[in-house]
Amino acid sequence: MKTIFIRFSLFVLPLIFLTTGCSSTKSQLEYENTLLKGRISQLERLHQDDLRRTKIDKELQINSLKSSNRGLMDKASGLELSRDELARSLAQEIAGYQAKLELSNRGLVVTFLQDILFDSGKAEIKEGAFSALSNVAGVIRDKAKDHMLVIEGYTDNTPIRHSNWKTNWDLSSARALSVFHYFVEKESIDPSRLSVMGNGSNRPLASNDDAAGRKQNRRVEIVIFPEKIKRVAAVR
């Protein structure tokens, strides 16, 4: 009987240990699985939080861009209205003076051909041109008082032969300066708003191969810049 019990014990005990070991391993696996699931849930929550924060950041950026765009559109609309009003006023004032008004990437450009303002080879403004320049000056004072202007002189490419000017550059610069002085001295335009440029025969409007083209190229342009002057307070 004792022998049978010993044999039974030798058979059963390993099974108990094996069963106990399996149970322990299973419990460990379940515990680790629970930890893993918890970590996955935590990562998913963090991921969702990141997504929400990213979405909020994107929405804030979009709203900021929309706000900036509305501001730019409002500003552009204001500039369009200001430009159109200025253009209408200038068109009325130069009508009948063989002058041309156009909108370029530089701004509003009033073009006077040489024949309107000057005699050939001269830089003194003709008396008959004063009224045209006065009309333009009036619009500049009333409608474009916060805009910068540049007065540009141009010639054709015919070399200087029968006048005292050394080059076409000198002649074009002198003509632009004559208009500058008229605006400042006769029309009380603030000289700080004005710039002067002599371009000689550069940037022709037409071919210099015939008389009609050369006539178009001999001109003075008054360019009104679209952007308003930024006033800076004086430092005391």
Short description:
By secondary structure, this protein is α+β, with helices and mostly antiparallel strands. Helices cover 58% and strands 14% of the residues.
**Main β-sheet: number of strands, strand sense, barrel status?**
5 strands, mixed
CATH superfamily of the domain at 95-228: OmpA-like domain
Q: Average pLDDT, to the nearest integer?
A: 80
What CATH calls the topology of the domain at 95-228 is: 60s Ribosomal Protein L30, Chain: A
Secondary-structure element order, N to C: HEEHHEHEHE
Strand content: 5-15%
Q: How many DSSP H or I helices?
A: 5
Radius of gyration: 43 Å
- Form type: elongated
Residue stretches low in confidence (pLDDT < 50, at least 5 long) are 71-79, 231-236
CATH architecture of the domain at 95-228: 2-Layer Sandwich
Total DSSP E strands: 5
Terminus-to-terminus distance:
120 Å
Which structural class fits the helix and strand makeup? alpha+beta
Give, in spatial order, the strands making up the sheet with the most strands.
1-2-5-3-4
Return the CATH class of the domain at 95-228: Alpha Beta
Percentage of residues assigned to helices: 55-70%
